[in-house]
């Protein structure tokens, strides 16, 4: 291998010499120019993104192949098991903790399915999954000495994992897809889980295409296998009206000991009145707030603290320190807030103060509030504020449903979708798709038009 850090990347260009649309990625390593052509711009974008990530993490490129060292190592892999480890190594440095969790979860499901069908002595699925999830898929745990049972399972996988080139056969890829549809106990997996794991499996095989180990993504050729439908729109039954939201926020203050509920009222109010995601509210600091006494205020949302297993975070803490979803790392989002939330936050700061780093919401010891803590408080508040029938319904079943209620309220109040999307941190297309069933008035207008036509 001939490593170099002298790398230059160019923007993607349409291939004008081809009759069919294609796109060219061009780059240079050690002043030696390289290019690769892709059928679609999305595939070209994916490959260029991998190259850019390698340069951002300071990875050397191999002059002979033009590829980052991590890609060269993956390209040398003979089995899908070893190739998957290379894929994880490439993705890991810039992946969020939840992405790492999702990636290792999916691959620990697929890898045991893509093995020699005639091999004997296959370990128990639970043992293989534990071996992959806890010991080898995460680069940070590979040096931990495994128990004998785990060592034997990994040795078996190394020996019997299918060669990467064999996965060009749709029949074999279907084995991996079928594995995604069941849990370890044999019961059916949830549609969202299947969709999430399929996405990881698809991207892993696409990486093999990028490295020219496969001619095309074999999942595209599996026509008989269809992923289950996943709900992409908000169920309007979860959306509370302003009166119900006020009752729930008041009920929060009566929950728990040592002022826990009162301390969390402001947190839940940020979800409803500002449409924040829970992880965004947890990262909110005093310096992010403009809180005039008798007027609309402003939140400058800049950070997010999503919760994940400590195994997947760089810090070893339970919460990542991330930028905002769907935005550049240093790009914030201004969110105007109504006087109701201004008052709640001013009262919160007056009673509880802020942490030394400026955070508004924290545990009694200054830590990050866990999902379990605020969800437990929310369940108790629902039981106090709602009728038994409402408690049994999906109404505001999760704290996140307060954000859904906020966005639905803005849309139904006549706020222009681009403005709503800016406040919520969505694209307009996603906003209208997700909240399509929460916009009132459409059915009534349609009924009037149909009635008028029938009366003619």
From TrEMBL:
The keyword ATP-binding does not apply. Residues 308-332 are annotated as: Disordered. GO terms for molecular function: DNA binding. Residues 311-332 have a biased composition (Basic and acidic residues). The keyword Transferase does not apply. Residues 235-450 form the Tyr recombinase domain. One of its GO terms (biological process) is DNA recombination. Keywords: DNA recombination. This is Site-specific integrase. It comes from Herbidospora galbida.
